[in-house]
Structures
1.
Amino acid sequence: MVDLRTEIAGVRLRNPTMLASGFLDETGGSLLRVFNAGAGAVVTKSIGPEAREGYPNPIIVELDAGLLNAVGLPNPGMVEFGREVRQAIKGKALVIGSVYGKDAEEYAKVAVKMAEAGVAAIEMNLSCPHTKGLGTEIAQSEEAVREFTREVKDAVDIPVFPKLSPNVSDIASFAAAAEKGGADGVVAINTVKAMAIAPELKMPILANRYGGLSGPAIRPIGVRAVYDIYEKVDIPVIGVGGVDSGRAALEYIMAGAKAVQVGTALVGQGLGVFERITKEMASLLEDVGLRSVEEAVGVAHG
């Protein structure tokens, strides 16, 4: 029998799948429902220090190969959302808190509140590609990634995982910067900056014009990013982008990821996607003679 358990910086997962931030994560009830459907862990929506409305519609475009979104990080703020986190944890969900802010102090402030609510780890959203001042600029400065990570690490006693942007020339160097800042692991990748235009209207479809592309179209980018990062740092990697099957998950794991996040696949496959991915992973691992997920991590490096 294949062992699907994995551990990331002391956070033990029953299987290597996580709910990605931005999907079915607005309430404690929805987080718990996803966990009970089979996810190894659930990541909250990105939470800031104060409530934020986000962008006006249209905010999402469904494309042939994924989703293009620019929602603008809407959230109720760290105080209100703490109740949702506690509800999910009370139901025995393993919760990772996603945080953002305009500067390092705000990131740390929200991370402390998340830790107080009981999350197992912090995911730092350093790389939102469509919200000015709250991601893109940070993600494109190695110094900022290092400094922001250090600020959060100094503020909390739980693992910290910066989420990195693919919209840079060498993502592995940013992972190294996060490692220097004390990161316990990194998440790769966030969505790819993109655009869709409606010819009939002669204008961009999204109200924000630009958005973040997710889904199968970005999986090869994500796999390459994880592969490069694995060769440059010693901390664990969590792979994200287009994970919609056990085969896709194993691409990331064999590239070097210890776990994967699932988001866009929920749109087409529903909550059953986590059980389908883990069953297919177990079957494929058995077929290639591997007895556990841990044995598969990084095997593509030879």
2.
Amino acid sequence: MNLLETNIANLRLNRPGMVASGIMDETGASMARMFSLGAGAVVTKSIGSDKRQGHGNPSFIELPYGYVNAMGLPNPGIAEFKDEMEEAVKAGPVIGSIFASSPEEFASLAVKMGSYKASAVELNLSCPHASGYGMEMGTDPKIVHKIISAVKDAVKIPVYAKLTPNTHILTEIGKAVQDAGGDAVVAINTVKAMVISPEFARPVLSNKFGGLSGPAVKPIGVRAVYDLYGVLDIPLIGVGGINGWRDAAEYIMAGASAFQVGSALGAKIDILNEINEGLENFMKEFGYSSIEKMVGAAHE
């Protein structure tokens, strides 16, 4: 019996840990490699309609408690990404992350990802450092509802919405996703942040502000998942600051049916294997017969 098997909106995974969007997911080869290193699924980097350069350097800084980045959604465009998807999907379930500036554009990109055999699409409604995209759209429940509705009308594969913690109405946005027919909510994306150089009296990043990821955001992510679980019936996927099996267990007990790992891969490429082993040992010791039995345990 596989203790780690889980199901998210009819997408069954043999392991609950996914590679989060934005790391080790730019090429078909890198995505395929992650399945041999413990991933149950891989989320692509966020792809748009056209090629995008993103922000200039410096666009990334490492801190003692995580990373701050302002990449600006660089990507080759949906047409050029076809070859990478063809290679990646041969190795396991690939979730296509997409960003757009309108419901119609989201729908068009989702159709393309479906034609590339993506197992699901993840709508980036949460990037904090790209003007006109991500968080700017994902903090308005009415806009979120329109986007989800448009994508659901266009594709048959599951539709996930990745939400931002940079809002005081997170549960309202989650409800908008559910009411529009969304299949799952992914929480959270990075927290809006800034780093200043005292020597130069200037922001370090070229974009001035960016998104904080890594260990510092884990308590924020766990709280977000806990709050969403209390108001939603659709599955949740937890992400933010997971560095070991205990972090993953926190997200699951807060209400997540699966989790994503991003920043931790920068220090240890095979950390998902370690998380899987530790999680399975914990489940055996404490009598959890499945991931499903753990989901939301902290609410009981």
